[in-house]
Batch of 4 targets.
Target 1
Amino acid sequence: MSVVKPEITVTVLGSGTCVPSLERSSCSVMLEVSNSRLLFDSGPGTMRRLLRTNTTIFEVDYIFYSHFHPDHSAELVPFLFATKYPDMSQRQTVLTIVAGGGFEDFLARLKGVYGKWIDLDPGLLEIMEMNNQAADSLRLKAFTVQSTPVEHNPESIAYRITSTGGYSTVYSGDTDYSENLIALSNGADLLICESALPDDLHLKGHLTPSLAGNIATRAGVKKLVLTHFYPECDQVDIEQECRKTYNGPLVLAEDLMRIQIPG
Ligand SMILES: [Zn+2]
Ligand SMILES: [Zn+2]
């Protein structure tokens, strides 16, 4: 039997929201692509979940922010502060933060509060802002990045990461129903999609299981992972709601779940 080596390994670090939960940490997903480790969002609790995967903060090469709501970004401050301990010598590689337009200003305002406590040496931190008005792309060493604006906050973008072998994963961030997300996800191997609330509690700026399923079907993705579950989602049959609109492989995210592509 031949064993196919995965090109992308996805680990759900937090499948929850702003609501404190022992089962579902706030939003964060780790992708391992080639030898790079990428975080998508860093809600509160991300560093402790990372430790559960035997990953230190110093091994994270990239953080991609979908938007700046605290349940997606709040661990950035303690992440940067911990990077300075004891003297920044533990970080051997550059930390690159990728985010929609406005991130430089967001970070500057955080520095207005925390000052040098979160200031890394310039050589250790690189910031890349993606266009939050139109589709954008970026070619990095071990993978390519495509992004597109989605329906949530002005800075909100979704990302598609494609490995050198052509395997792709899309991370929606928070969004309402989005034609841009459908276009970005076209034929993707995996779509990690928010599904914040059950169908009958649809909240503007968010998706439900059947709306996420509709997006996955129209995009023709090969596998759908639903995540970002408010507590109301744990009271209903999310899978059944998603099956109204989507027949393909479906995973309901749980913290520390791993998915390999190809799997
Ligand atoms: Zn949000
Ligand atoms: Zn959110």
Target 2
Amino acid sequence: MLGSCVVRMLAAGAKRGIVATCAIAFGKAATRSCDNPLKVTRLLVRHLAQLATPGGLEAPLRGRALGEIEVIEDAFVLCREGTIEAVGRMRDLPLLDDDVEEVDGRGRCAIPGLVDCHTHACFAGDRVDEFALRAAGATYEELHAAGAGILSTVRATRAAGEAALREAVERHAGWMRAHGTTTFEAKSGYGLDRETELAQLRAIAAAGGIPTWLGAHAVPPEFESADDYLDFALAEVLPAAARIAEAADVFLERGAFDVQQARRYLEACAAAGLALRLHGDQFTESGAVPLAIELGARSVDHLEATGPDGVEALAASDVVGVLLPASALFLDRPMPPARALVDAGAAVALGTDFNPGSAFCESLPIVCSLACTQLHLSPAEALAAFTVNAAHVLGRAGRKGRLAPGYDADIVLLDAPDWRHLAYHLGGNVVSGWVLGGAVP
Ligand SMILES: [Zn+2]
């Protein structure tokens, strides 16, 4: 147990004015030690060493505003029915006269629940053999060309069945939550047939994720060409996928889909009502940035190979650049030009890219450390990038990513006296508790 809190409530049947008190365990493996006979509608996290949140109301944040984090010392957060009602200093806490569940935040910091806007968390099997081969010198592209890579996960995912896929997403979501992620997106793209793509999307939604149809991830072996596969995917999968997914994504890269094919896929997906995202410029500068801007995509993700023209174009657009430094590290690739993007005024977000092949990493705190040491962002810029800006990429600006009145009461508590330990503690886990939808899980 990493902390404790106390509940005060009027017990059912108790005489008016008699207050019952019971202890609630609070931590990763904790459960409530008493049943609450009345519905507690308010929750107070009090005496926090610090509360840190992106400021303002805008999304996405860019330029100087990206690094303007509000920090309140000796702070509280008050939640009501799943929503943040108030935040402030303890000395300004109003008198609370109804039933309130309290969490003692002494020695801890509160930050918004983290938002992972780019994962591939729905898959079966693993690629540990491939990891070892790569460590011995094989490149990711060579492995992909040899039938390893994405297609090996496609084989395992097709064979798994929907129930196993749902269990996998739930297991992975638990890993992510242990590192502070309370909202996550996950993509399909390991089915590449109708049945498995739709099963993936349903499994992601059932496990609480936000589903993205990555129907154009790779060309499965039963199709002769990318164009033939897209004929099938757009005619046979898109109509049903569009009823489950919120966005569509494409892997625009040498050996996967080219600009013309990506345009065809994305235009069809937009016509079906899906928001647009692209994997672009991961290995080669592939035309993804101009296409994303032209089509009004929400994001273009990776950008490890993006040059100065792409940086300038993104900065002048509304498309968010999603940076995935864990993937670049995992594959020993160059890091994306994050500092140049931020300095030019581009909106950036951060994600894990959690997947079995190129980024087996579910931890946004590790991404936060990499953002500071490898991308040369400040801890404050990194926090905004995987809270409010990531929420914008997922169409949840105004609900997720800030500790401010009216936002969803998703709060992460850090077992540290300063919130920047989130970035500072490389590979450690300072996450010591959560509030999800206004309740302690
Ligand atoms: Zn990805």
Target 3
Amino acid sequence: MKWYRLFWLSSLVPAVSCAPSAPKEIADLILTNGRVYTFSWDEPALDGTPSPLAPRSAEGWRPDAEAVAVKDGKILYVGTAEEAARYTGDATRTLGVSGATVIPGLIDSHTHVAGLGELESQVSLFGVATEEEAVQRVVDAASNVPEGEWILARGWDDSDWASHYPTWDLLSEKFPKNPVVMQSLHGFAVWGNKKAFEAAGINKNTAAPSGGRILKDAGGKLTGIVLDRAGRLLTDAIPEPTPEQFRGYVKAGLERMARDGYVAVHEAGVDRNLMTALSSLESEGSLPIRVYAMLSARDGGLCREWLQKGPDPGSDRMLITRSVKAYYDGALGSRGARLLSDYSDMPGHKGTSGGEYGFDMELVAEMMRSGFQVGVHAIGDAGNRETLDFLQSVVDANPETRDLRHRIEHAQVVHPDDFARFSSLNVIASMEPPHCAEDQRWAEARLGPDRVKGAYAWRSLRKSGARLAFNSDLAGSDHDIFYGLHSAVTRKAKDQSPPDGWYPEERMTPEEALRGYTVWNAYAAHQENETGTLAPGKWADITIMDLDPLVVGETSPGKLFEGKIVATIVGGKVVYERDKE
Ligand SMILES: [Zn+2]
């Protein structure tokens, strides 16, 4: 029988191969010799214990595959290098990734990419040692900018230079015809040339606003530096970007994400300008990574337009719109988040929320009834409770809306009585591990020793049955995946404080942290059948990195920061490759 099949196959398709099970399909791309983790095994238990089916032994994690074959943007095969090689044809590109770790493509489920792109498009002054060096960098980067156009730079160290601020002399000499504004690393000082001060209408007689200073020399003349709240006198004069510039920012932000290993973002708050930019990038095929657009509920006109159209159906398109971002309360740091009782460091103050904060209950409910997922920004324990109450009221009246997987963005401080409501309402807690690492310095001052236990409470939420989604909330926070994983696994800041982690019982395991940036985010976009794990038939969305985050996250998490992205693949297309840079 076997002999017969062999004969029959080879007589029919002798050109392909004489092997009995030669695959008919030829791959476009084969990744081989990698440490491939498919994440196709079962979810870990709610306490983080890996499934018995997970690829690990007493020694720890080990990859469950070594190669991936890709065709027409989808995964054709995942498994051994030997078997994958059988999908090779004349046009197949084989990418040997020897030793690198291959995981499902990373997704950041809460971003503001235009802000990131805007930063990218400014001249970087990070690490400059002297005034001359700073000015030279701007000359190198911006000497071809047309006359009159604004030149923006950022990153000179205002702490280091606070005792000897630069002046506008050299900057004005090199740029006599363009306003130049150079923002500092910590945001306390802004440095500009004469043209910029002129354009902003600042002269030696201008009064500084309270809490700010306009620096002058001994003769009372301007020097080119404005401090603290006076910084706005200069930055407010920077013109709004043109639609073409704005589109460039969006593209630059997405390209940066591709370089940093991300295959998709959930863009949290898309208004008309951003939708125009994203749609035009999509229609000309220049979106480097996927965008799951969350319409801004603050743009009522745009939302009403989408109410007419209805949510996008599931598809392979690079831009999908089926979600709405709404805003329920403010931030914890600035004491805008709404708390159930007074701020511990500001008696008599509870923050603001709801209608007072511009939350349009009617519009959001209508979007939900029309089939849109809603992601509501809620930070304080009252903000979260009131948001859950609101979602519950809509779901009670329209039970089918429960299936839309609504989200609370941040879910930063949750009263313990409310943990279980996330899973009962099918609401995803969409959270930022880096916020915990950064906010731990002051969060307890705002909340006191009891309430703080419900803050950034990933484990408590998971144990209650809530689904989580992890993200950065860039551009305000560092989206580096190794930082995100480190934050989730350690609850320590970049400087490794506190030594045991902040409320370490709320930590995630490395597996949970990675799921938080892959398959859990896929679920949060109703895309778990298309992406989030490596399996045949799914989008070929793949991230390759030079360290194994499961092993390193478990054995020496501080070393996660050493990781680098090797390549990013979106829909089978290699959108970033380190070795080609
Ligand atoms: Zn945000």
Target 4
Amino acid sequence: MQYDNDTKRQCGRRLVSVPSGKAYRVSSPAANAMVAHELADELGRALERFAIEAGFDERGPVSVFFRPGIFGHHQLGRAADIYAVGGVGIDQWKRRWDEACGRAARFAPGAARQIVTKTEPVTNLGWRLYKALQRYGRWSQPYGYPIQLFGPWTRSEGPWKHISDRLLRAHHDHIHVAK
Ligand SMILES: [Zn+2]
């Protein structure tokens, strides 16, 4: 999606940085996630809920790192890209997830496999963040487009399981949300 310069100017005035919450802290520079108020609010709510559920609090908040995006919704401050959570890159969380799946597949059904399949969804903060954003965030769905939540888990977890190889590759190292 492309936007003309007038639209960008009109909307560009009211951008804010995604604020830190109580149980999570934005560790990237404010300029990395300058967004519209609605998106800041929606992200703040979902991130706080994710962080509390994952066991973080005011005394020990989890860090979240954004990087600026360029295309489509980013031009209007209606999208944000998360590259790391808990000081670990989303791509590394995904690699860890895939390795755990591989380990689980090698075990016969039973206790050993359960250690992997029950532990990883609890301890993998990248996956947890993706699922929390999916569960608790209301992201935009432009007419004729899928819900604007993309990341390395989109093909297996949804919401748009038919994501193309190209788009999946483009989101192998970050989670994109738009509102
Ligand atoms: Zn993006």
